[in-house]
Write a structure and sequence with these properties.
5-stranded antiparallel β-sheet; about 30% strand; about 140 residues; Nuclear Transport Factor 2, Chain: A; alpha+beta
Length: about 140
């Protein structure tokens, strides 16, 4: 009887782990979608300080170094247009891609949550995406 109890306990643990894993993926997709939407809303409102708050630290650093100005000013000079609604999110561990109506964002998960590492990205045939804003 003890063997059966252990087997049932192991089965229950496996089911909980699998279901918990599925919930985690769904939560990550929702978090990615929310971060992408926050980025797009801030961009559309011209709230470049909020855009910068959603960018990954290395992306902010790269943007500021290449522009020679603070992040908010550098983002405004990029003249990015909002990419529209989030159509699809793909999450791969701590990395994600948000495909919008007319843009693609790449994100990474940090302790503070999901951050945009690249924006203004367009696919290139047989090559990686080309992004207007990206981290180093």
């Amino acid at each position: 009887m003890a063997g059966q109890t252990r087997a049932v306990a192991v089965c229950v643990l496996l089911v909980v782990t699998v279901l918990g894993g599925c919930g985690t993926v769904a939560e990550r997709r929702d978090d990615v979608r929310d971060t992408a939407a926050a980025f797009e809303q801030a961009l559309g409102e011209g709230a470049y300080d909020r855009v910068c708050a959603v960018l990954a630290p290395a992306t902010v650093e790269e943007l500021e170094q290449s522009a020679g100005s603070p992040c908010a000013k550098a983002v405004s000079e990029e003249s990015l247009t909002p990419g529209g609604a989030v159509r699809r999110t793909d999450v791969y561990g701590n990395q994600a891609r948000a495909v919008l109506s007319s843009d693609t964002l790449f994100l990474s998960r940090f302790t503070a949550g999901w951050k945009v590492v690249a924006a203004g990205c367009t696919p290139q045939p047989q090559e990686p995406y080309q992004c207007r804003i990206k981290g180093g």
